[in-house]
């Protein structure tokens, strides 16, 4: 056995080998040590190898999925080795014959399909990047849904695209692996090297044609060599990991460059669109607005938010669908009821295609197609274009649904091996086997009654023992009748005892065999029928995919409509201008958070950037920290993103000219792993914006230059704003603490000052969170520091230094001289005031003994105390 294990392990040196041993997957040697530590399970030993103990650990087969998920998340790959025959078959080859085993699957982060290993509302992408002679392409697939895409790109654009897709695994040619090693930590994905031959475009084209059974790829679009190479690498890798059992892949879809809003990795991180800064879903835009009711709708929402469209017709079609459901509440409610009962068609179909499904997946197909037909019947003629197109794919499955309805019970078990999923009355042979299995006694009783009547012997019995099995028993007296003709032709003598004679019949022998084998036979029939039903489903795979897409489209439109009604969002006017005019805009995540915390209302604000003919393209925003500048910046970027994703937006009204790119430089962080300080990260991200932003971009920048010396920072911020205005010519919101920059509004025609208002009261600052035109008079930094809880000594010292600096500036640059005259700051706590002397009232109280006072005297004492308190 160990020789077999080592032979298989040698083929998968970079993976843990799950070696099937009966009801357990066992691991040995270094695999066992690594797995035991990762899974926190017992490490034991089994036998010896080369004179040393063999380390061993194992996990039960029935709960292996949970262990697999833990190992995958910790960066392992797992080769699953199954028994290819049962031990009885192996023994036929000899007493010491080893059960045949082989690896049936290599489990990697990008090739998961099990429901328990995946997040229902997120895609799990496997991507491949190919470079050929200066050109490059990225292909990606979610094998749990079959969606396959490819696009032309470049090494420079690889990072932003990975940030958009967030694949779990990226395949690279071995020759390029080292060049992109840093992507693993930067995007939290698993990098997988593949032989350069897998990226050969000529052989890749043949693989693609063979997979989709076409003679030319022209039917799918025009692909260049890198795109074909990337697609071929994915197919090659799937053949390796799935051991030749390829998933049901849809024909490749070529995405065009520029069809979606370009958003780089830093911007996605800053805006927290689908992932928060901490890496989770809480606090993100998607968590705040996700009202989808199906897994497919949830995944579509994630795609729309990650890739908002730049095509005006597409955006308007999506918004028209939302508007239709907003205006037709009754239809929307009926749609929601049907969607709540709709399972995940895409992933159920994928599992069936990979032979990892079960009866519940077939039932999911049945239930999903049933709800699709219900939704189709719910909607009248005259739907908006998007919904009308989707509705066409919701019907035409009557024959398949009828078959599955008749064949399956309402709530089938998870696994086919458990049986019990075929409905009674669907198959006569199965019904007979089940009857024998479940009602064997009644069948024998009916035979007993039949034979008693035939022989005219009322005492005739059918009995059973472990030697003879079922037999007919009668007394010796009655046996003579049964031994004589014509009964002897039916009853066959088997045994004579002292008082009884035992018989059998051909019918009884056959029935005995059927009863004994009924359970196994019923299960075999169900397995055969399961295969038939699976084949029927897979024959309609393309149509089921279309239905899944249509259901997701209805779900997302319904979710956006529910969001618009529930949150009082408006339909934005999106056009080809460069206008950006938001009235009463709100931050969807912050507003929701404030609502959960209590009754604090969100202060809505306007943002009006011109189309270049009048007004300003850039707002220079000043005001103190904590006043809401970052919230204002982010909310306008999110409003633009939501509008082009096809949603209504959190505002009273919105007019948005198509945005081609969204750039955000908000917040401070370092990147120590790559040797970058906070200021270096800030400059790298700013450089990316200035080098890439076009005149259709929307840029939000917060506190550029704050990571370095004051004058350095001011000069960098000043030059950055001028470049955005003169060179990039984009729409921008630029927040700063450098009040000197407000002078740019007088020098640059496209720049206008705006500020977040505050109110000062008795030395404290009150944030009003209202944005208005004009510049802030100061930063209120000392007041904010006081609110944050800095010691009074520090706050007071800061006021003194600030006053000196401001006085020096007023007197023409004499800050240094004035600072030199300041007394040194003392960290010694100020002396505590002496304890206060007791007051006259307190002295009088100390002399009073209440128990010795009459009521009249007590009243007089109160009058005296009151008089002393007044005069003291």
Automatic annotation (TrEMBL):
Q: Does the record bear DNA damage in its keywords?
A: yes
Gene3D superfamilies given in the database record? 1.10.1420.10, 6.10.140.430, DNA repair protein MutS, domain I (3.40.1170.10), MutS, connector domain (3.30.420.110), P-loop containing nucleotide triphosphate hydrolases (3.40.50.300)
Q: Does the keyword DNA damage apply?
A: yes
- Gene Ontology terms, MF aspect: ATP binding; ATP-dependent DNA damage sensor activity; damaged DNA binding; mismatched DNA binding
- Stored Pfam families: MutS_I, MutS_II, MutS_III, MutS_IV, MutS_V
**Keyword terms of this UniProt record:** ATP-binding, DNA damage, DNA repair, DNA-binding, Nucleotide-binding
Enumerate the spans annotated as DNA mismatch repair proteins mutS family domain.
697-713
Q: Could you say which protein family the record assigns here?
A: Belongs to the DNA mismatch repair MutS family.
Function as written in the Swiss-Prot or TrEMBL entry: This protein is involved in the repair of mismatches in DNA. It is possible that it carries out the mismatch recognition step. This protein has a weak ATPase activity.
Per UniProt, where does ATP bind? Answer: 623-630
**Which Gene Ontology terms describe the biological processes this protein takes part in?**
mismatch repair
What is the protein name stated in its UniProt record?
DNA mismatch repair protein MutS
Q: Which domain of life is it from?
A: Bacteria
What transmembrane ranges does the database entry give?
none
InterPro entries, alphabetically?
Answer: DNA_mismatch_repair_MutS (IPR005748), DNA_mismatch_repair_MutS-lik_N (IPR007695), DNA_mismatch_repair_MutS/MSH (IPR017261), DNA_mismatch_repair_MutS_C (IPR000432), DNA_mismatch_repair_MutS_clamp (IPR007861), DNA_mismatch_repair_MutS_core (IPR007696), DNA_mismatch_repair_MutS_N (IPR016151), DNA_mismatch_repair_MutS_sf (IPR036187)
Recorded GO cellular component terms are: cytosol
